[in-house]
Design brief:
The protein is of the alpha/beta class. Helix content is about 35%, strand content about 20%. It has a nine-stranded mixed sheet with strand order 3-4-5-2-1-6-7-8-13, sandwiched between helices. A three-stranded mixed sheet has the order 14-11-16.
Length: about 350
């Protein structure tokens, strides 16, 4: 594969919801982007790289358009990194300026976290192999995507919840570690520890980010915000939400999410964690009410108490992120308006 002077980024899991938006951002700035994804939940680049030409070379798919370049590696991250580490891969990789590690086994609470938790534990293998590769390949900067679910469950309970601050959870020194709410939190917490070791022992520049609840226009309709938007678009009455509806989350639009990732990898290098969220707590009943108001009707709002809801209140204090120079461009209402408009178009096209 030919080398050039432009900056080259790696995004594992780059075909997922967050990955696609991050990749678009990197392409727009003029970077060459390499994407590794097995399409377990992601979408093939053929479906979202409109107007790009495509060719196959050295078992890679290469997409180009007006100076933009994406190299797609269709492979499982475990097999890919294991073969490279063992010297069994014919793949020739460039020197990466930045590596964003998003690859993970995810599938939502009802699909995996509740019903197949040991499948989620596969993430520990993915993360271990990624960091083994990273400390040898030495990208100039690495971003590891952890999770807000790693925070102690006791600090997110009904009547006891507080806004999460990074110092409430630390893998450094004699840091505080509570009991995460699920196996996903435990595995991602272990990943943060790997990041700390990679920095302290091997000198890797790395930042860990703890995302709260991202959403956007092209997110699948089984995710909370598009799902509620679809019901509101159909003017359903009653307007149903999962769980009691009193549980709350910290929702951030995908554009602001991606801008936070870019700032974090550029500003933090010592494996410290950065919360990615707006800093507000919205209950699902409040979300449904806002969606209905945007749509222009007043339904009864009801919860489905037989559906899992996870922690009662998960939200963050964004002081550290903002100290790095980040500010959101979308209010929650503006973001919901964008989602509702997009969902209505999708429903119209499907009918």
């Amino acid at each position: 594969m030919e080398q050039n002077s432009r900056k080259i980024k790696l995004v594992t899991g780059g075909c997922g919801f967050v990955g696609r938006h991050l990749v678009d951002n990197l392409l727009e700035e003029g970077s060459e982007v390499w994407v590794l994804d097995n399409l377990f939940t992601g979408k093939h680049p053929d479906k979202w790289l409109a107007g790009f030409s495509k060719k196959e070379e050295n078992n890679f798919s290469i997409y180009e358009q007006g100076g933009k370049k994406l190299v797609f590696i269709y492979q499982d991250a475990i097999d890919f990194f294991r073969n490279i580490i063992a010297g069994k891969s014919a793949a020739v990789l460039p020197n990466f300026d930045e590596a964003y590690h998003l690859a993970a086994v995810v599938g939502g609470r009802a699909v995996l976290i509740e019903n197949d938790p040991l499948m989620v534990a596969t993430n520990h293998i993915i993360d271990s192999l990624f960091f083994q590769w990273a400390v040898k390949a030495k990208p100039k900067a690495v971003l590891y995507v952890s999770t807000s679910v790693a925070y102690p469950f006791s600090m997110q309970d009904r009547g006891k919840h507080v806004a999460m601050r990074e110092e409430y959870l630390s893998t450094k020194g004699h840091g505080q570690i509570g009991l995460p709410e699920s196996i996903y939190g435990w595995i991602k917490l272990a990943g943060e520890y790997l990041a700390t070791v990679a920095h302290e022992k091997y000198g890797l520049s790395v930042v860990c980010v703890r995302p709260f609840s991202g959403y956007g226009e092209d997110q699948e309709l089984d995710y909370p915000i598009p799902s509620i938007a679809a019901r509101a678009a159909r003017r359903e009455n009653p307007l149903i939400v999962w769980g009691s509806g009193d549980q709350g989350r910290d929702f951030i639009h995908i554009d602001d999410f991606v801008s936070a990732l870019r700032i974090a990898i550029q500003k933090v290098h010592d494996a410290s964690a950065v919360n990615i969220g707006m800093g507000g707590l919205l209950t699902f009943k409040e979300i449904a009410k806002m969606m209905a108001e945007i749509e222009g009707y007043s339904p009864e709002i009801k919860g489905l108490s037989d559906k899992p809801e996870g922690s009662f209140a998960v939200y963050n204090d964004p002081t550290f992120l903002k100290s790095l120079g980040w500010e959101p461009k979308n209010t929650v209402r503006q973001g919901f308006e964008r989602v509702l408009k997009s969902v209505k178009e999708r429903i119209k096209n499907e009918s």
